[in-house]
Amino acid sequence: MFLLMTLVLIRFTNGRVVYTIIEEEPPGIVLGNIYDQFNITRKHYLANIILTQITKNTFSKIYPNLVTLETKSGNLKLNSKIDREKICPSAKEQEECLLDMQIYLSSIDKPLTANLLVIDINDNPPYFLSKKYYIKVILFPIT
């Protein structure tokens, strides 16, 4: 039997909600509840969510259907698997893959702003600059 571990973290940074998810999570994972995180009265809203990639002060791509809001419950759910390398191809392993999220709800004047941070699971084979490396190992006898 396999145990599937899902990690979704929610943190607040500079007044913004940051949802953190590991790439390749299955669709349907609940990222969080916007009614709780943004302290909004629970009622049925019409919703639209826009996700954009943040790369060095420019928006390079828009992802309109990556997440869905269940307006009755307030649950923010993942619609499809996320491949970090496809969404943030220019981000190096050490750099964050951060998506800016604008959540538009009917009868609320301003959009709710949050971020979606995608963590790499290191699913790619290693890449080396040279095909051969020589390592010199010096052994000392134990005395």
Automatic annotation (TrEMBL):
Q: Which gene encodes it?
A: LOC115229094
**Organism for this UniProt entry:** Octopus sinensis
Q: What is this protein called?
A: Protocadherin beta-14-like
Pfam families with a match to the protein in the record: Cadherin_2 (PF08266)
Q: What does UniProt give as GO cellular component?
A: plasma membrane
Q: Which GO terms describe its biological process?
A: homophilic cell adhesion via plasma membrane adhesion molecules
Q: What is its main location?
A: membrane
Q: Which GO terms describe its molecular function?
A: calcium ion binding
Give the UniProt keywords, A-Z.
Calcium, Glycoprotein, Membrane, Signal, Transmembrane, Transmembrane helix
Signal sequence interval, chain numbering = 1-15
- Annotated InterPro entries: Cadherin-like_dom, Cadherin_CS, Cadherin_N, Protocadherin/Cadherin-CA
Which cellular compartments is it found in?
Membrane
